[in-house]
Amino acid sequence: MSERRRAAAVIVRDGRVLMVHERSRRSGGGEWWTLPGGGLQPGETAEEAVRREVFEETGLVVSDLRYVLEMPYPSGMTSVFTVAVADGEPRVGRDDGSGPEPLGLDWLPMPELPIETGGVPVPPLMVVLPAMPPGERQTGEDSDTDEVADEAGATIARRRSATK
After folding, report:
1. Hey, which end of the chain has fewer CB within 10 Å, N or C?
2. What is the separation of C-alpha 7 from the centre of its chain, rounded to a whole number of angstroms?
3. Residue 6 β-bridge partners
4. Are the C-beta atoms of residues 8 and 72 closer than 8 Å to each other?
């Protein structure tokens, strides 16, 4: 069996990176924020996959992309690209019932790099939301933030996606 391959996009606007909020369909499954992206279809290149996945998950059309690096991901090695998109606001992709359930999109703060490095600040591919016992989870009715772990593992508040 061949290794599963993925492609992911780093889309930056005003110093923030676009992330997708998803939930597992498995019983007791968790939620997470991840870069737009997904698995390569048979015969598809990583470049083709990232263009398709960005459109499917965000409604944005890729106008330019640049390969950055390969990173491990729970479901396979991932080709990461910096991506420029045509003007427009992102919208949550259609839920086709396969894969994780899309919950929303948001522009989250991007990791900083010293300017002299000339590198691309790639955020973690996935930030997992901590599991909370039923009844203790805050809902959008009384809060517009979720707690998530940052790159160092500290718990921080993130604005909840306004899209769902």
Report:
1. N
2. 11
3. 39, 78
4. no
Residue 162 lies inside a defined structural domain of this protein? no
- Are the C-beta atoms of residues 26 and 99 closer than 8 Å to each other? no
For 30-73, what is each residue's pLDDT tens digit?
Answer: 888 889 999 999 999 999 999 999 999 999 999 999 999 998 87
96 domain residue, yes or no: yes
Confidence band, pLDDT 50/70/90 cuts, at residue 4: confident
- The Cβ of residue 13 has, within 10 Å, a number of other Cβ atoms equal to 13
Judge whether 20 lies within some domain.
yes
CB 65 within 8 A of CB 81: yes
77, 70 contact by CB (below 8 A): yes
Helix then strand then coil, % of the chain, to nearest 5:
10, 40, 50
Domain of residue 107 covers: 5-129
Q: Which of 7, 8, 26 is nearest to 99 (CA)?
A: 26
**Number of domains forming the structure of the chain:** 1
CATH number, residue 42: 3.90.79.10
pLDDT in tens, 104-136: 999 988 766 555 545 555 655 555 555 544 444
